[in-house]
Automatic annotation (TrEMBL):
Pfam families: Metallophos. Residues 12-211 form the Calcineurin-like phosphoesterase domain. Keywords: Cell inner membrane, Cell membrane, Manganese, Membrane, Metal-binding. It comes from Modicisalibacter tunisiensis. The lineage of its organism: Bacteria, Pseudomonadati, Pseudomonadota, Gammaproteobacteria, Oceanospirillales. This is UDP-2,3-diacylglucosamine diphosphatase. Coiled coil: none annotated.
């Protein structure tokens, strides 16, 4: 049995997204802690790494966030292939697709081949928002509530640090109890699975919805690497191609499920997986 540090140290590829640099919610110190131990051959920054939308209102870039940026650039200079796939909060960087800046390659989307030969579509995931059938007013209300909960999350974890307790996500705990959030996540996962199937791929890797985890359906694997404002998780590919979801300490939270071949999906029908 591998220890958490061995899993992170030996990972072939690391996927992180939704860091939201430039906001007070960014857990930069926890991500830096993970990256100090990880030595991936390739690092994917799967969108919303920089929150340009929030920074228009108020930019927050404390030393911990600056140190995180410096660490990623050091990885790039040290031989790690860094691929940045912008999301909806850093969409302005999409116009730079195809360029390499400070050894960081910027792409709109990418096909990643695992060590075992499986091929996965990698994108941020905001392109699937149009497939989610939830009333716009409910989405707007949910976004406002989410921002409020994130502020509570900062206060809660500030108190926990004072008491010497580890990070804990209040926002994540509340989200698991909301039926509308679960429906949104299920529809998003369905759309991503269907897209990977349509392109003849073995799976999909993305972020966007701040809900880490795996899902299998119709012979395709969905993997979401989570975020670094609530869950503080990343997706790690091991040397043999297996995928694991890890937290900021490198502990394994979930391993990829077995994917069973199945007939093609019916559009609009949710997968029971």
């Amino acid at each position: 049995m591998s220890t958490p540090s061995e899993i992170v140290d030996a990972c072939r590829t690391l996927f992180i997204s939704d860091v939201h640099l430039g906001t007070p919610d960014c857990q930069a110190a926890l991500l830096s802690r993970l990256l100090r131990r990880a030595r991936p051959e390739r690092l994917y920054l799967v969108g919303d790494v920089v929150d340009l939308i929030a920074m228009r209102r108020r930019a927050v870039l404390p030393p911990a966030q600056q140190q995180l940026v410096a660490r990623i650039l050091r990885l790039a200079r040290g031989g790690c292939e860094v691929i940045y796939i912008p999301g909806n909060h850093d969409a302005a960087f999409r116009r730079l697709s195809g360029l390499r800046i400070h050894n960081v390659r910027i792409e709109r989307r990418w096909i990643h081949e695992l060590a075992d030969g499986r091929r996965f579509l990698v994108s941020h995931g905001d392109e699937f928002d149009t497939h989610v059938r939830i009333a716009p007013w409910l989405l707007a209300l949910g976004d406002g509530m989410h921002q409020f909960v994130l502020r509570l999350n900062r206060w809660c974890n500030g108190l926990r640090r004072t008491l010497g307790l580890p990070y804990w996500s209040l926002a994540s705990a509340l989200k698991r109890r909301l039926g509308s959030a679960r429906r949104y996540i299920a529809q998003f996962e369905q759309a991503a699975l269907h897209q990977a199937w349509r392109e003849g791929l073995d799976g999909y890797i993305g972020g966007h919805i701040h809900q880490a985890g795996f899902r299998a359906g119709y012979g395709v694997l969905y993997a979401n690497d989570g975020d670094w404002v609530e869950h503080c998780t990343a997706l790690a590919e091991l040397p043999d191609g297996r995928l694991r979801l890890v937290d900021w300490q490198g502990r394994t939270l979930a391993t990829e499920p077995h994917v069973v071949p199945a007939p093609p999906p019916t559009p609009g029908v949710l997968i029971n997986a």
